[in-house]
């Protein structure tokens, strides 16, 4: 491979970001063109740097106070064919992983998999292929519930309600804050849980911890 693959690394944990960058810098055909601790910085880098692949966690500060990067990545993937997006994550929730694939990410790499999996994912992304690391694939294949085409893909409003709820606000408090009816908020909360395959409050809390909301 003669032309280098230009990569931006986004993760809110400095040690993870530094480790990923060190790994990729040892790969001759990969060039790091930027790093970001949050989606605001990532957006600014994408406006000023030519990039082939974004390697990003989703549990990091988002734009306008959001607590994850999903909404930004959704807009990015809809608005332009490049760069490809490879998710680097600790999430092992099948519905969420499936939802990321339906958003159009080119790869999902579990942080517990081998370091070479990330390089394989980047190479697959630029070749137009979809890549799942071993643990990510196992999590999806082990799901007992059939994954729906839009599973895991929450609307912006559903993310907003979901985030406020896991932060400890009651339905009526969320309704007051967002100036919507309690019935609407309850419906959006149930819809979010259904899309993510969450059945109980404990499932909700465990999931929120996985993506860094709790």
Strand and helix layout:
Blueprint: E1 5-10, H1 14-25, E2 30-36, H2 39-48, E3 53-56, H3 70-79, E4 84-89, H4 94-103, E5 107-110, H5 115-126, E6 131-132, H6 134-141, H7 156-166, H8 171-178, H9 182-195, H10 201-210
Parallel strand pairs: 1-2, 1-3, 3-4, 4-5, 5-6
Helix pairs in contact: 4-6, 7-9, 8-9
- Full CATH superfamily name of the largest domain: Response regulator
CATH architectural name of the largest domain: 3-Layer(aba) Sandwich
Low-confidence stretches: 146-150
Level of helix content? 40-55%
By DSSP, the count of extended strands is 6
CATH topology of the largest domain: Rossmann fold
Textual characterization of the structure:
- This protein has two domains: 5-141, Rossmann fold (3-Layer(aba) Sandwich), CATH 3.40.50; 156-210, Winged helix-like DNA-binding domain superfamily/Winged helix DNA-binding domain (Arc Repressor Mutant, subunit A, Orthogonal Bundle).
- 49% of the residues lie in helices and 14% in strands.
- It has ten helices and six strands, in the order βαβαβαβαβαβααααα.
- It has helices spanning 14-25, 39-48, 70-79, 94-103, 115-126, 134-141, 156-166, 171-178, 182-195, 201-210; strands spanning 5-10, 30-36, 53-56, 84-89, 107-110, 131-132.
- Strands 2-1-3-4-5-6 form a six-stranded parallel β-sheet, sandwiched between helices.
- The model is unreliable at 146-150 (pLDDT under 50).
């Amino acid at each position: 491979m003669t032309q280098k693959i230009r990569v931006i690394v986004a993760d809110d944990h400095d040690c993870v970001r530094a480790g990923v960058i060190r790994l990729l810098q040892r790969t001759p055909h990969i060039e790091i063109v930027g790093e970001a601790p949050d989606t605001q910085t990532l957006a600014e880098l994408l406006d000023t740097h030519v990039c082939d692949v974004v390697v990003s966690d989703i549990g990091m500060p988002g734009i306008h106070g959001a607590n994850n990067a999903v909404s930004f990545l959704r807009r990015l993937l809809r608005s332009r064919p490049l760069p490809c997006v490879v998710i680097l994550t600790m999430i092992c929730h099948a519905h969420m992983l499936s939802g990321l694939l339906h958003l159009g990410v080119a790869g999902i790499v579990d942080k517990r998999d081998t370091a070479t999996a990330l390089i394989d994912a980047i190479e697959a992304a630029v070749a137009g292929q979809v890549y799942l690391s071993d643990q990510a694939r196992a999590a999806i294949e082990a799901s007992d519930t059939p994954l729906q085409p839009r599973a895991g893909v929450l609307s912006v409003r559903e993310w907003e309600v979901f985030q406020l709820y896991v932060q400890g606000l009651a339905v009526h408090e969320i309704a007051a804050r967002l100036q919507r009816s309690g019935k609407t908020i309850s419906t959006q909360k149930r819809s979010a849980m259904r899309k993510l395959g969450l059945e109980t409050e404990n499932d909700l809390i465990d999931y929120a911890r996985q993506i860094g909301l709790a």
